[in-house]
Amino acid sequence: MAVLETARGLVPYRQHLSRTVKFVLFGVEESGLVGSWAYVHQHSDELANTILMINNDVGGRPSGISISSFDQLKPPLDEVAGRVRIAGQDLPPFLVSVG
């Protein structure tokens, strides 16, 4: 449900997006990551153009936000985390740099 609502929330902003946004869902990944492995292998030519992947592993009530990103994404992600706090959510960002 969270993924569908996120997609629905982006619809009004689609004309402002300069990149393609894909929502990819996998089920039963505990049994060997079969779906995600298949997706990566079938779309390997797209991986170099991927700048952000959000993994919503467990829907429910979060106790924080965990973000792994490239250094150049830190400023916009910090801004988003700030907006979440302004919206009344107490979700402190936890940023892990990988780039």
What can you tell me about this protein's structure?
The structure is a single chain. Helix 3 (74-86) links the parallel strand 1 (65-69) and strand 2. The protein has helices at residues 2-10, 34-42, 74-86; strands at residues 65-69, 93-97. The radius of gyration is 15 Å and the shape is globular. The longest helix has 13 residues, at 74-86. It is an alpha+beta fold and 99 residues long. It has 2 domains: 1-50, no CATH class; 61-99, no CATH class. The protein starts with a helix and ends with a strand. The chain contains 3 helices and 2 strands. Residues 91-99 have low confidence and may be disordered. The protein has a two-stranded parallel sheet.
Outline type = globular
Cα radius of gyration in angstroms: 15 Å
Oligomeric assembly: single chain
Helix/strand class: alpha+beta
Number of helices: 3
Question: Helices and strands, in N-to-C order?
Answer: HHEHE
Task: Please give the share of residues in helix.
Answer: 25-40%
Distance between the termini: 31 Å
Regions with pLDDT < 50 over 5+ consecutive residues?
A: 91-99
Strand content: 5-15%
Largest sheet: 2 strands, parallel
The overall strand count is 2
**Mean pLDDT rating:** 75
